[in-house]
Design a protein that fits this description.
Number of domains: 2
Strand order of the largest sheet: 3-4-2-1-7-10-9
Largest sheet: 7 strands, mixed
Structural class: alpha+beta
Number of strands: 11
Helix content: 40-55%
Radius of gyration: 29 Å
Distance between the termini: 54 Å
Length: 454
C-alpha cells in the first residue's frame, strides 16, 4: 500500500508540473495588436541596423464588405540620421515595413518631409461574413486572432466599418463614433469580438449575438468533449475499476471499517511525510507537490474524527458530500500554511493551479459511500462531477482545439490515474462507512429532505 501511494504521489507531482509548463511552452511570442507601431517598429528597425525613435503612432483599419481590411499606419519619428536614411533608401524602408507587420500584406511605405513614416497593408481575413449581412472579427481576441496579444501598440487605433454597416459589438473600453461608423481604441487590455451590422437595423444586437454565437458554440462543444468529457470518462473507468476491485475483495471493506480511524491517520501521515520528502520541504518543486501535504493533513483529521463510532454511525451520503467540501477547503488551507511555513518563494502559480484536483480527490469520499450502499451509478456520477469540476478551471472553452495527439492522451490518462490513486483511500473508507452508518437500509436518494404534506 505504501509503495502504491508513493507512486501516486510521484505521478501527481509530474502531472502538476506538466500542467504548468506545457501551456507556456506552446505560446507564441507576445505581439501588440499593431506591431508596425511604436516600440515594436523601433525593434524591427534595429534588427536592420537602423535606429529610429517613434514619438507617436496611429493606425486606421478600413474594412471592406468582403472582410478585407486596409491598414494605414503612421509613425511620427524623432529627427535623426536614421530618418533621413529611411527616407532615401526605398529598399530598406520596404524591408522594415514588410517585417514589421507579421500577419498582413505589405503594400507601400513612404516618409514625409516632416518625418512621418506611413505604411499601408492589406489583410484579407480581418473579418468574415455571418448571419443577416453581419460581419464579425476575432482579431481582437487571443482565441480567434493572434494567440498572445500584448497591448495595442499604437497610441490610437481606429476601425472603420464597411459601407452600409455600423459597429455592433466592439472591444471593452473602446468608443464608438456618433454615426456608429467608427470604433476607437487608445488602450487594449480586455479582449472581445468586433461586429459590423447593417445600418439602422433594429435587430443589430441580436445579429451580433448570433454572429458570435454561431462561431463560438461549435468550438465550445468540441472543447468540452476533448478536454472535459473524455478525461472525465477516463477517470470514471479508473474509479469503476477500483470499485470492482473493492467489491470483489473479500473482507476488505469490513477490515477497513473496523480500523477506519487508524487507516486514514496512517495514510495521512504517509502522504504528508511523502510530500515533504518529495519536494524538499515543499519548496524544491515550486509548490507542485504541496497539495499532497494538505491531503495528508486532512486525512489525519478525518481519521481522528472517524475513529469515534458515534461519528461513523451518523454517516450519510449527503453528509459525506459536505465533508468532502470541507476536506477540499481544509486541504487547501493546510497547503497554504505549509507553503508559507516551508516555501520561501511564497504562493506561486504552480501552487495555486494545483488546488482544483483536490475537488476530484475528495469527491471520491461520498462516491465510495454510494458504492458501499450498492448504488454504482451514483458512485460514478459523484466521481465524474468532482473530476469535471477539477478540470474546468484549466479549460479555455473558446480557444481552438489544436490537435488531440498521443502526448495529450497520455497526459490525460496520467492525470486521471494519479488523481484516482491519491483518492482511492478515501474511496475505500467511504465504502466502509456504508456498513457503519445507522441508516444502511435506505438509499442515498432517500436522504434528501422532502416537503411534509399539510
Amino acid at each position: 500500500m505504501a509503495r502504491v501511494l508513493r507512486l501516486a504521489a510521484c505521478a501527481l507531482v509530474v502531472v502538476s508540473l506538466l500542467a504548468v509548463v506545457a501551456p507556456g511552452s506552446a505560446a507564441p511570442p507576445p505581439r501588440p495588436l499593431c506591431d508596425a507601431c511604436g516600440e515594436s517598429l523601433e525593434k524591427t528597425a534595429a534588427s536592420r541596423d537602423l535606429t529610429v525613435s517613434v514619438e507617436r503612432s496611429t493606425a486606421t483599419v478600413s474594412v471592406a464588405r468582403n472582410g478585407t481590411a486596409t491598414w494605414v499606419v503612421r509613425n511620427r519619428l524623432a529627427d535623426s540620421p536614421g530618418v533621413e536614411r529611411l527616407r532615401e533608401n526605398d529598399t530598406l524602408r520596404s524591408e522594415i515595413a514588410d517585417d514589421a507587420m507579421w500577419d498582413a500584406e505589405f503594400v507601400a511605405a513612404n516618409v514625409s518631409s516632416s518625418g512621418v513614416l506611413t505604411m499601408r497593408y492589406r489583410e484579407p481575413d480581418f473579418a468574415e461574413a455571418s448571419v443577416g449581412g453581419t460581419l464579425r472579427s476575432g482579431e481582437f481576441t487571443d482565441a480567434y486572432g493572434y494567440r498572445n496579444l500584448d497591448g495595442l501598440g499604437a497610441d490610437r487605433l481606429v476601425v472603420v466599418a464597411p459601407e452600409g454597416t455600423e459597429v455592433g459589438w466592439t472591444v471593452p473600453g473602446a468608443t464608438v463614433s456618433d454615426d456608429g461608423r467608427r470604433t476607437v481604441l487608445t488602450a487594449f487590455e480586455d479582449r472581445g469580438f468586433v461586429t459590423f451590422v447593417p445600418e439602422e437595423s433594429a435587430l443589430g444586437p441580436l445579429l451580433s449575438l448570433l454572429a458570435v454565437g454561431t462561431l463560438v458554440a461549435p468550438r465550445v462543444g468540441s472543447n468540452l468533449v476533448a478536454v472535459v468529457v473524455f478525461p472525465t470518462a477516463l477517470f470514471g473507468l479508473f474509479v469503476g475499476a477500483v470499485g470492482a476491485g473493492v467489491s470483489r475483495s473479500d473482507g476488505l471493506v469490513g477490515r477497513v471499517g473496523e480500523a477506519v480511524g487508524p487507516v486514514l491517520v496512517g495514510v495521512g501521515v504517509l502522504l504528508t511525510g511523502g510530500a515533504l520528502l518529495a519536494s524538499g520541504g515543499l519548496s524544491l518543486l515550486g509548490g507542485a507537490a504541496t497539495p499532497l501535504f494538505g491531503v495528508g493533513a486532512t486525512a489525519v483529521v478525518f481519521g481522528a474524527l472517524l475513529g469515534r463510532p458515534a461519528v461513523r454511525a451518523r454517516a450519510t451520503y449527503w453528509r459525506l458530500v459536505a465533508a468532502g467540501g470541507v476536506g477540499v477547503a481544509l486541504a487547501a488551507g493546510t497547503t497554504l500554511v505549509g507553503a508559507v511555513a516551508f516555501d520561501q518563494s511564497g504562493l506561486t502559480y504552480s501552487l495555486l493551479s494545483s488546488f482544483p484536483p483536490l475537488v476530484a480527490v475528495f469527491a471520491l469520499f461520498p462516491a465510495g459511500y454510494a458504492l458501499g450502499r450498492g448504488d454504482r451509478r451514483l458512485a460514478l456520477a459523484t466521481a465524474a462531477v468532482g473530476f469535471a469540476l477539477s478540470v474546468l478551471p484549466f479549460v479555455s472553452l473558446l480557444s481552438p482545439t489544436r490537435g488531440f495527439g498521443l502526448f495529450v492522451a497520455v497526459f490525460v490518462a496520467a492525470y486521471a490515474g494519479a488523481v484516482a490513486a491519491v483518492g482511492t483511500p478515501l474511496f475505500v473508507v467511504g465504502a466502509s462507512l456504508a456498513d457503519s452508518s445507522g441508516d444502511a437500509s435506505t438509499s442515498p436518494d432517500d436522504e434528501r429532505p422532502t416537503a411534509t404534506a399539510e
